[in-house]
């Protein structure tokens, strides 16, 4: 198996056809077809379904595509680590952010990276927490912001902030009428709209509830932050989230966020890297910058509900 075969295969999948991939790669289509056939023979599996409309990955092809992407990224990172300067780091760095964190951290970090490290290409990807952990293990992302759930031993972790979760509902909703705070029991008794278990916030809520002898019930599960916000604005229920994803709605008075007491709920936000795949100079620079940006956001109170660790 050769690296060029991996590059060819990834290009075919990305462009959806052999002809378009051949044009982009500047390779004759018969040669591309031959390399793909050799790859499939070596793997003993069909990777692509071919049709007049283009190509689609088989189940085996989808699995191989993920690994091929990770391998090619690690090769590019290895080349970058050898050539780049520690004083002027350059190259590409991919940082994964959970949906509920990106609203607070993404734009400030991107702006800081462009100002301080113009030769670094910072790629931000927004994903479910579970997906980010898998991508970090495989090397598809260099860094990821995750939540300390006691299962981060495969990673090198740097604590960023302790982030408070609040009871959030539409302004004027009966769920918040006459209240300046709610107990956890009162919050769990409401019609809750929550992300699914694969989101980092949901396991934390379930864990704190169990410790208090309580449980969630009658939950509407919505995994899209945009749809979840629409459901809250329609007064279909309330949610338990950090403030950052709904900050704009709170600032314009469309939503309210009440502190939760007896007990309060918070989560530890950490920056993670792989223990097995070393960071390039560019990756290390972005890691340090992310810590500094998080600290600045806490000191300026821009990241509401977050306490610097």
UniProtKB/TrEMBL annotation:
Keywords for the protein's UniProt record, in alphabetical order: Activator, DNA-binding, Transcription, Transcription regulation
Pfam families assigned to the protein according to its UniProt record, in alphabetical order: HTH_1, LysR_substrate
GO molecular function: DNA binding; DNA-binding transcription factor activity
Coiled-coil portions: none
InterPro entries: LysR_HTH_N, LysR_subst-bd, WH-like_DNA-bd_sf, WH_DNA-bd_sf
A GO BP entry: regulation of DNA-templated transcription initiation
Residue ranges annotated for the HTH lysR-type domain, each copy included: 1-58
PANTHER family hit by this protein: NITROGEN ASSIMILATION REGULATORY PROTEIN NAC, TRANSCRIPTIONAL REGULATORY PROTEIN NAC-RELATED
Name this protein carries in UniProt: LysR family transcriptional regulator
Organism placement in taxonomy: Bacteria, Pseudomonadati, Pseudomonadota, Betaproteobacteria, Burkholderiales
């Amino acid at each position: 198996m050769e690296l060029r075969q991996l590059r060819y295969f990834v290009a075919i999948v990305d462009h959806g056809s052999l002809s378009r991939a051949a044009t982009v790669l500047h390779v004759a289509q018969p040669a591309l077809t031959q390399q793909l056939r050799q790859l499939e023979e070596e793997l003993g599996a069909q990777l692509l379904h071919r049709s007049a409309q283009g190509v689609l990955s088989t189940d085996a092809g989808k699995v191989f595509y993920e690994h091929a992407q990770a391998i090619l990224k690690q090769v590019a990172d290895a080349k970058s680590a050898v050539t780049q300067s520690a004083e002027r780091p350059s190259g590409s760095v991919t940082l994964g952010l959970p949906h509920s964190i990106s609203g607070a951290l993404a734009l400030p970090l991107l702006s800081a990276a462009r100002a301080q490290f113009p030769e670094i290409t910072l790629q931000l990807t927004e994903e479910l927490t579970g997906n980010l952990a898998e991508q970090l293990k495989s090397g598809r992302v260099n860094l990821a912001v995750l939540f300390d759930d006691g299962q981060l031993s495969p990673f090198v972790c740097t604590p960023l902030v302790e982030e408070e979760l609040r009871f959030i509902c539409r302004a004027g909703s009966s769920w918040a009428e006459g209240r300046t705070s709610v107990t956890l029991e009162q919050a769990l008794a409401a019609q809750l709209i929550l992300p699914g278990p694969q989101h980092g916030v949901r396991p934390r809520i379930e864990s704190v509830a169990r410790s208090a002898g309580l449980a969630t019930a009658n939950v509407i599960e919505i995994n899209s932050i945009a749809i979840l916000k629409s459901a809250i604005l329609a007064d279909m229920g309330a949610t338990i989230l950090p403030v950052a994803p709904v900050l704009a709605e709170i600032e314009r008075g469309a939503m309210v966020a009440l502190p939760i007491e007896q007990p309060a709920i918070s989560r530890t936000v950490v920056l993670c890297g792989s223990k097995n795949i070393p960071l390039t100079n560019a990756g290390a620079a972005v890691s340090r910058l992310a810590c500094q940006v998080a600290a600045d956001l806490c000191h300026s109170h821009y990241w509401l509900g977050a306490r610097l660790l």
